[in-house]
Amino acid sequence: MIRIALPMLACILTAVGCSSGDSGSGHEESPAQPAALPSAPVAAAPDVPATPAPESAADTHLDIAFDNQPWHGDLDKMIERRVIRVLVPYSKMFYFIDAGTQRGLSYEIMESFGNSVNEHHKLTKLRVTAIFLPTSRDQLLPALRAGLGDVVAANLTVTPSRQAQVDFVAPLAQGVKEILVTAADAPIIATIDGLSGQEVFVRKASSYYESLNALNASLKQRGKPPIVLREAPATFEDEDVLEMVNAGLVKFTVVDRYLGTFWSQVFKDMKVREDLIVHDGGDIAFAIRKNSPQLKAELDVFMETASRGTTFGNVVIQKYLQNTRWVKNSTTAAEMQKFAHLGELFRKYSKEYRVDWVLMAAQGYQESGLDQKVRSRVGAIGVMQVMPATGKDLKVGDIRQLEPNIHAGIKYVRFMIDEYYADEPMDEIDKALFAFASYNAGPNRIRSLRKLAEQRGLDPNKWFNNVERVVAEKVGRETVQYVSNIYKHYIAYTLAIEQRDRKHAVHAAT
């Protein structure tokens, strides 16, 4: 089980991502506003204690966790579980979060694959969701083998040592070259043998490390000094290493040619030596656990439409591997200041009302994309999509303004939990999930469907795979997708920032 306490939401909102999928909260069809509640309890909502919890508890998460237990199964079982867990490196190119939105080449491909699975298997109300789990490079394959993920979606080169551990699906790209990249002031290298005796900075878990070891074996046979392999931190992505080369902190590294040429548009001081090839003819592919024939077959077919050279593949490649928009500066200084302010507000009011601030930020993203200017057709307002009548009853100020709007949304969720779920035998995450479902579909409706779930032998105190099944049947896909998306955003935010923080810590120490 992963239990994560996180710092600054500003980091989440400016640097990390989630597709909102069905982004609306559902207020237009089944508003969970005062009209759906007895008038007296709504009026009583402002009586929720405003005194912050003790400091020892206030600055930590509540007991909300993403329970990712080891699990092994093929695609049919993933469909039953309704989750495909995608292990991704947190990277400016392959997976990152920009202004609360998940982006990246790996993200777009696997999100599209999840949609393909739903269409192929005619899944409508209870759909399969791709959950993205940012994971450091050295842990991608171990986590996959341990059953902590189902697909590794990264720029992995197929190598014999990796094939001994996992299976690879049809390649995204073929004939990939690994080339030398040097600092501006590095010694001049005329041939690849000129690396003999030089230090090269690469991750040990990379295919580059394997290729350099093979080159060392060749150098040894010819009586030449070996290349000194200096290990880059496992948390580093290729762009981190190239940034160090560009700054002259290290002199040599090896990367895939397409990455070197792309990043040379951003890191203009480094030299990309396309003429010095360490390895040629590599295939890049996503990895899955061995003995997963159904998943492999479906991914193989899907990759026929997603690999380099296809229409979809070329569009994604153009977006992330040719256009430098995302990596140069995905947010302006003004936007960064805006999101830092949002983070402060989510922390402030979540602390006051004893809810998880990252979870509330995830709800805010699902409601509005964290945009205070959003107005729904039925009049819901702002980041938290609060109805004017609700805002008035909550007595938090003018919800047309950012701070009162976030205040109102968080206070209302606290009210929903206290009013309907405080004494229920649920864990904290389920209390929050049921509160979100009630926010979307109405608390009285959710109460009746919990009773129906119990009559059917399902657990009325568990949302996923229990009450949500009845809700999908009786209410439809919208509420189920709404809750699922919020939880998906929450997982992405927390795990991505955990990875980002570790990387920053290593950067600071390097």
Which consecutive residue ranges, at least 5 long each, have pLDDT under 50?
Answer: 1-65, 329-333
Major sheet, described briefly?
Answer: 7 strands, mixed
Question: What is the number of helices?
Answer: 21
Shape: elongated
Mean pLDDT metric: 81
CATH architecture of the domain at 9-68 and 332-509: Orthogonal Bundle
CATH class division of the domain at 9-68 and 332-509: Mainly Alpha
- Helicity range: 40-55%
Tell me the radius of gyration: 25 Å
> Between the first and last Cα atoms, what is the distance in angstroms?
30 Å
**Strand share of the residues?**
5-15%
The CATH topology of the domain at 9-68 and 332-509 comes to Lysozyme
Number of strands: 11
Structural class: alpha/beta
What key phrases describe this protein's structure?
510 residues, alpha/beta, Lysozyme, D-Maltodextrin-Binding Protein, domain 2, seven-stranded mixed beta sheet, elongated, disordered N terminus
Report on this model:
With 510 residues, the protein is an alpha/beta fold. Among the domains are: 9-68 and 332-509, Lysozyme; 169-284, D-Maltodextrin-Binding Protein, domain 2 (3-Layer(aba) Sandwich). It is 48% helix and 14% strand. It is built from 21 helices and 11 strands. It has helices spanning 9-15, 39-44, 55-58, 75-81, 105-120, 140-145, 160-163, 207-221, 238-246, 257-263, 293-306, 311-322, 325-329, 333-352, 357-368, 388-394, 402-421, 428-441, 443-455, 463-474, 477-509, and strands at residues 83-88, 96-98, 101-103, 129-134, 151-157, 167-168, 173-182, 199-203, 228-232, 252-256, 271-288. The strands form 3 sheets. Strands 1, 4, 5, 6, 7, 10 and 11 form a 7-stranded mixed sheet that branches. Helix 8 links the parallel strand 8 and strand 9. Helix 14 (333-352) packs across helix 15, helix 14 packs parallel to helix 17 and helix 15 crosses helix 21 (477-509). The protein starts with 8 loop residues before the first helix and ends with a helix.
